[in-house]
Specification:
Elements lengths: L2 H24 L7 H34 L1 H6 L1 H25 L23 H36 L5 H4 L1 H30 L3 H8 L8 H5 L1 H8 L1 H19 L9
Helix pairs in contact: 1-2, 2-4, 2-5, 5-7, 7-8, 10-11
Length: 261
């Protein structure tokens, strides 16, 4: 996990969890106003949308980093920096527009997570487009790009007549599968349920969608991000085990002095 992804996770904790804690403690949002609800909803949707799309593009960039590294270095501004900025600015502009300027009325709930939902997300056209554009399509891109990457690496190792290919590449496979798997667990239930709810609404699907019940799954990736970071950085894992061994040795070397009689 790169520094950009980690910064988004820190923003998740600092900006979003603080509002959530106030909601769970008081039973209502920090400020009972539509302006605050619009702010919270825009911030939540923007960070979620941008983080998923950045992960999708980083999956593609990872392929170029391994197999076309000279091309990536030569065109770093076009291939790396411009897409990074685009996938930050574009979701923000989109969410601000659909929340504040769509021809519909937002009915925010001051007792729900992120004040419920915005009206554009319940509309069949804009709601379906938003979920497909923001979540489902990036997840499909992620699984395809990582599958192609793993297949090409294994094929290349096989052509080099290397034995025990799966064993030698188990760390890479574990990293990619854990990252993609957590994102799928986090977002696919919400995306599929919301799209179905736009065309075949039921009381259960409305409850899951409007009150953000399934959105709780998005924090699977956030809460387990330290584990994926440890898997992605072997030096960090070695340093953690080294510190644990030193702590264990220091604890075992402490002698218990009997109390004076």
């Amino acid at each position: 996990m790169g520094p950009l992804e980690q910064s988004y996770l820190h923003l998740h904790f600092s900006a979003l969890f603080r509002s959530a804690i106030i909601l769970f403690y008081q039973g209502k949002v920090a400020f009972s106003s539509d302006r605050f609800c619009a702010y919270w909803y825009v911030l939540t949707s923007f960070i979620n949308m941008s983080s998923v799309q950045l992960n999708a593009y980083l999956s593609i960039e990872r392929y170029f980093l391994i197999f076309h590294n000279p091309f990536l270095i030569k065109h770093k501004i076009i291939v790396h920096y411009i897409p990074m900025i685009t996938f930050i600015v574009m979701p923000f502009v989109y969410v601000v527009y659909v929340v504040n300027f769509m021809p519909c009325v937002n009915h925010f709930d001051y007792h729900s997570w992120a004040c419920g939902t915005a009206c554009y997300l319940i509309h069949p056209v804009t709601g379906t487009f938003s979920w497909v554009f923001a979540i489902i399509a990036p997840l499909i891109v992620m699984i395809i790009s990582n599958t192609v990457l793993i297949a090409r690496v294994l094929y290349f190792k096989k052509r080099m007549m290397q034995r025990r290919i799966w064993y030698k590449n188990r760390k890479m496979l574990l990293q990619l599968l854990s990252l993609v798997g957590m994102l799928y667990i986090s977002w696919m239930p919400s995306g599929i349920t919301s799209v179905i709810n736009n065309y075949y609404p039921t009381s259960i699907s409305m409850e899951l969608t409007v009150n953000w019940t399934l959105i709780c799954f998005i924090y699977v990736a956030t809460l387990f991000s330290p584990l994926t970071t440890i898997l992605a950085i072997p030096e960090l894992k070695e340093e953690i085990f080294r510190s644990l061994n030193q702590w264990t040795k220091s604890r075992s070397s402490i002698r218990i002095i009997p109390a004076a009689q």
